[in-house]
Amino acid sequence: MSNTFATIPDDGTPLRVVVVGAGGMGRAWLHTVEESPLVELAGIVDLDLGAASAGAAAVGRPVPVGTGTARLAADVGAQAVINVTVPAAHHPVTTEALAAGLPVLGEKPVASTLAQGMSLAAAAELSGQLFMVSQSRRYNRQLFAAKRLASTIGNVGIVSADFFKAPRFGGFRDAMEHPLLLDMAIHQFDMARFLLDADPVSVFCEEYNPSWSWYRGDAGATAIFEMSGGERFVFTGSWCSPGLETSWNGAWRISGEHGSVIWDGDNEPEVETAVELLESDAGLESEDPGQEIAGALADFVSSLRTGAAPMGQVHQNIMSLAMVESAVLSASSGKRIMVDALLEESYAQCLTSERNPDVLQILRSWPTVRAALALEPSRMP
């Protein structure tokens, strides 16, 4: 497997990008792109041309619009694509862009299913282009600080995240089968992978729906993951718990052999240890990765300019979706789920459903799924 990708040398001009998807999240990305000196908005794509035109109007200046990603990108000379479509469209839109020789920054999740995510990983290898997934909540200076502090407390054995909110979205989320796990928990699952530099081994998850919940599907869940370093990550959350709500990032506790780190998700993390911190540990500044989608955008551009692997490169990010799928399967079956078994089952599905013979050849060359998805460890703060 190759995890290298084509770079775009910095010629002193912003990277020209096309944004695909002009819905609510698309508008947030349009604003972020317009605010960034690193990129230039070259076009807006949406199957609903009226939505694309409305997005252009919101930008406040003339922006070319269209319904086809590769075509509009070619017409306007775009160098990259930002895919902000609904999850069901992630695979076709990203596949089209990669095949056209365009690197892609996509919204989470990587795809609707693990099988589709593997297909996209192979398509990225085939094209030699970068496909990065924006796990925006990794881009938080306080999260990086919590990880640095965790390095001072010895071997970490337990990480927990509590998430309690009561948003009334209306629309599709209210009707989803697994609203919390499918639409939100991937953020905390991915953050746990970042904090531990570890991947999931197994999970036992229980879902439930409080009597007052306004969601059709289960809005509460508790999941216990065994991670690849032997650690346990425990997630407990609810999307129908008003009062004393947590941060959207969650409330975190990291427990190690010499102490603990706590982070409320909005303020500076705290550490208490049973041993005295070295002065170098206490005074070290944490890396600032930028904030949320603006940080993801900057990481994407930097990677294209330098060739350095970003957080969220497709192969590495698939394991965050694996945590979601395995948790849903555990909750549905009432059983502990081994992640490797799920990966192999999804890989078999991918081989059966893949229609591009060149992508299929890449997939068949993978020695194992775990080996194929093993990129460089996520950056240390």
Describe the structure in your own words.
The protein has 381 residues and is of the alpha/beta class. The chain has two domains: 15-137 and 292-316 and 340-373, Rossmann fold (3-Layer(aba) Sandwich), CATH 3.40.50; 140-283, Dihydrodipicolinate Reductase, domain 2 (2-Layer Sandwich). It has 15 helices and 14 strands. It has helices spanning 24-35, 49-59, 69-76, 87-99, 114-127, 141-150, 172-175, 179-183, 185-196, 279-283, 292-306, 314-333, 339-353, 357-365, 369-373, and strands spanning 15-20, 39-45, 65-66, 80-83, 104-107, 131-134, 156-164, 200-208, 220-227, 232-238, 251-256, 259-263, 270-273, 337-338. It has an eight-stranded mixed sheet with strand order 13-12-11-7-10-9-8-14. A hairpin with a 4-residue loop joins strand 9 and strand 10 (232-238). Helix 5 (114-127) packs antiparallel against helix 12 (314-333), helix 5 crosses helix 14 and helix 6 (141-150) packs across helix 9 (185-196). The radius of gyration is 21 Å and the shape is globular.
